[in-house]
Amino acid sequence: MELAAKKDTELAEKLREVEKMLEKYKGQKGALLQVLQEAQKIVGYLPIEVQKLVAEALNVTLSEVYSTVTFYSFFNLKPRGKYQIRVCLGTACYVKGADKVLARLEQELGIKVGDTTDDLKFSLDACRCVGACGLAPVVIINDDVYGRMTPDKVPEILKNYE
User: Fold this and answer.
1) Is 88 annotated as a binding residue?
2) pLDDT tens digits, residue range 101-123?
3) Inter-residue long-range contacts of 142-150, CB under 8 Å, 24+ positions, other chains counted
4) What are phi and psi of 109, to 5 degrees?
5) For the chain, what are the domain ranges?
6) What pLDDT does residue 6 have?
7) Binding site annotation covers 133?
8) Count H helices, E strands: the chain?
9) Which CATH number fits domain 83-159: 3.40.50.2300, 3.40.1190.10, 3.40.50.150, 3.40.30.10?
10) Binding residue per annotation — 93?
11) Contact (Cβ atoms closer than 8 angstroms) between residue 10 and residue 17
12) Considering 4, 33, 70, 147, which has the largest number of Cβ atoms within 10 A of its Cβ?
């Protein structure tokens, strides 16, 4: 089965799961955040197809759903990678070279902040202060914390996730 057809089939299956989940929320306007969280848990992100289903089920406008999705940082409009990389750009980390670590990650992965690799393996984000200033600069990959990062350590650390 070709890759695009496989992705379409997988999305169709997940949309059916979302429709099933939405049955218990029909017409409940106040449930928008909860429904979006559940839908994202099922699909992994909130494509327009999911947003339309949610708007219809809750009897709200698509623009209301979209504005909610884009307002909250924990919602994603694009698929996210298996490994989510966050680089702290808080003051302590930035002063100690986090921007250079971030640049090296972008170079190694071939993506920019906010993007995901084509193979859906890595997503790259910057964040503000993770509360580990003594370890600055800090990179977090899923639940793994890497302190005192340097650009030269990036390739070695990425090998742990292959």
Assistant:
1) yes
2) 999 999 999 999 999 999 999 99
3) 142/83, 142/84, 149/97, 149/98, 149/101, 150/97, 150/100, 150/101
4) -90, -20
5) 3-71, 83-159
6) 67
7) yes
8) 7, 4
9) 3.40.30.10
10) yes
11) no
12) 147
